[in-house]
Amino acid sequence: MKPPPPPAGGADRVALLETFVRIVEAGSLSAAAAQLGSTQPTVSRRLQALERSLGVRLLRRSTHGMTLTDEGARCHERARELLASWEALESEARGAGDEPAGLLRVVAPHAFGQEQLVAPLVDYLRRYPRMSVEWLLHDRTPDFSAEAVDCAIRVGEVSDPSVVALRIGDVPRIV
Q1: What is the pLDDT of residues 90-126, one digit of tens each?
Q2: What angle do CA 46, 51, 54 make, to 5 degrees?
Q3: What pLDDT shows up at residue 96?
Q4: What is the Cα–Cα distance from 121 to 127, expressed in whole angstroms?
Q5: Which region, left, alpha or beta, applies to residue 37 given φ > 0 means left and ψ of -120 to 50 means alpha?
Q6: Is 31 exposed, middle or buried (0-12, 13-18, 19+ CB in 10 A)?
Q7: What is the pLDDT of residues 22-43, one digit of tens each?
Q8: What per-residue string of b and e applies to 100-116 under the rule 16 or more CB within 10 Å gives b?
Q9: Are the CB atoms for 145 and 161 separated by under 8 Å?
Q10: What pLDDT digit, counting tens, does each position of 72-93 carry?
Q11: Under a CB-based contact definition with an 8 Å cutoff, are residues 67 and 50 in contact?
């Protein structure tokens, strides 16, 4: 199957679909041009480029107005869906740098993890809903690489000089 020809005038397919949807929703090429901050001839060329690319006539134009063809009505509905999906994709892609997403593997001692970390974990997951946390509750020092551990909470001194450690609090001990 031969791929469709590239859109004319350097406009990408998303821009052509946006223009088509705007034409239909505005009711005329000149109204769409005004809304897009463009000219009527440019909007007309974009419509023609989309029609050429799809190989169908989308609108019937006359001196009395314009109407959608059957293909145009189907294309308009599908174009709106595609543009909504495209906007969602852009939002997610832009938001990917703003909000953490993925799996965080945390090692914590049994007693400390169960008693001290449940409330902060709930708060963290509410704040970052695209994150998930896997708790590894054990009392031994983790092998970060072998266990694919992102961070560890330890009680006591850290003896490994390659580990970056921050004091987050004191744990009183009763003997």
Answers
A1: 877 776 667 788 899 999 888 776 677 888 888 999 9
A2: 125
A3: 60
A4: 10
A5: left
A6: middle
A7: 999 999 999 999 999 999 999 9
A8: eeeebbbbbbeebbeeb
A9: no
A10: 999 999 999 999 999 888 877 7
A11: no
Domains along the chain with CATH numbers: 8-96 (1.10.10.10), 102-152 (3.40.190.10)
Name the region of 169 (left: φ>0; alpha: ψ -120 to 50; beta: rest).
left
Specify the DSSP element, H or E, that contains 59.
Answer: strand 59-62
What pLDDT is stored for residue 5 in this prediction?
Answer: 52
Per-position DSSP letters for 106-169, written without gaps between them: EEE-HHHHHHHSHHHHHHHHHH-TTEEEEEEE-SSPP-TTTTT-SEE--SS----TTS------
The pair of three-digit structure tokens given for residue 117, joined into one six-digit string: 């970390």
